[in-house]
Amino acid sequence: MDALICRSCRRTYALDDPRWRCECGGVLDLQFTPRLDWAALGQRKPNLWRYREALPVQKDRSIVSFEEGFTPLLALPIDGRQVWIKQDHLFPSGSYKDRGAAVMISKARELAIPAVVEDSSGNAGCAVAAYCARAGIECTIYVPEDTAAAKLAQIQWYGANLIRVPGSREDTARAVLQAAQTTYYASHSWNPFFFQGTKTFAYEVCEQLEWQAPDALVLPAGNGTLLLGAAIGFAELRAQGVIENPPRLIAVQSQACAPLALAFRDHLGSNPAIRKEDTLAEGIAIADPIRGPQIVDAVRQSGGTFLTVSEAEIREALREISRLGIYIEPTAAATVAGLRQYLRSAGPTERIVSVFTGSGLKTTEKMLKLLA
Ligand SMILES: *Cc1c(COP(=O)(O)O)cnc(C)c1O
Ligand SMILES: [Zn+2]
């Protein structure tokens, strides 16, 4: 039966229970049986709602959408080798976070939730604010004080309340928990419906490769919202008999903040305490990710690994991609830097897919500083 299920104590809750964590404090996943409607699929528009029967929103009229998704899977030469890159920087709010927000906010509308809170280093806040504007849901976004100015502007122009929290990204996460006692927490790291949106990445990649899975997927890992979504999506595609083997997940972290790479290497069952340093890839600099052990397990089960990238490698990747005529933000370039590392040891016939996660237009101050 469809349900919310706790990863820690396995307790289940009804799918329409508007809760974002278990009574025991554990994170919730979704138990849900998707199916693809092959006949309908061919008739549908190229957006992520074409996988309608795989998305846990009951009524069509709950759907909050800009007809987002089905982003181009572009073949690009990277270091002399052809790879496929999903252009998720082309989403309406400028990052792949729209995948998660589309499904999560549709579910919030289905549950008649009047107001939500969310915390973010920027892009998740922009996405949730955009979909709340479209849905007519009141929205309050908590961000660290040093968030990029363009993202702060975007969140406010969508009509969301913006709360700037002094201190670190972790201080912001603590501040929102207070508000989440009384208001629905539309969290991209806690809320299981967000991952039901990001899983569409897998469905799209698979369809764009003529219903085959790639051999390897190179993805960012901060809170793992895209990585875990992709893992869910490919597992569902296997369960439905569409593919035989899900891709290996190659998870990329910044060297300046790599708790998951350390947990993977040392077989730790929980997030290690690390000292986070400044990085260009602030969007994936998550010192204590809520779903840390889940991310490490997903990577290990897939036969994949973790890679860490330096500031110099991020700068170099940003430069290389820009010279191909594509403008991405520094955090997105960290994944490209990981892809370049991966290519050095990849097999000659491997089919490799990666992603541009966010647009460079959101980080102008940083881009100008990097030019100088
Ligand atoms: C959110 C984000 C990521 C990484 O996502 P996680 O969920 O933290 O793993 C990567 N790039 C950009 C641009 C993002 O906004
Ligand atoms: Zn529990």
Protein traits:
about 375 residues, alpha/beta, Rossmann fold, 3 domains, 4-stranded parallel β-sheet, 13 helices, binds pyridoxal-5'-phosphate, binds zinc ion
Task: Walk me through what this model shows.
- By secondary structure, this protein is an alpha/beta fold.
- The chain folds into three domains: about 30 residues, no CATH class; about 200 residues, 3-Layer(aba) Sandwich (Rossmann fold); about 90 residues, Rossmann fold (3-Layer(aba) Sandwich), CATH 3.40.50.
- About 35% of the residues lie in helices and about 15% in strands.
- The protein contains 13 helices and 13 strands.
- The strands form three sheets. A six-stranded mixed beta sheet has the order 4-5-13-10-11-12, with helices on both faces. It has a four-stranded parallel beta sheet with strand order 8-7-6-9, sandwiched between helices. The protein has a three-stranded antiparallel beta sheet with strand order 2-1-3.
- Strand 4 and strand 5 form a beta hairpin.
- Helix 2 runs parallel beside helix 3, helix 2 crosses helix 6 and helix 11 packs across helix 12.
- It is globular.
- The mean pLDDT is about 95.
- Bound molecules: pyridoxal-5'-phosphate and zinc ion.
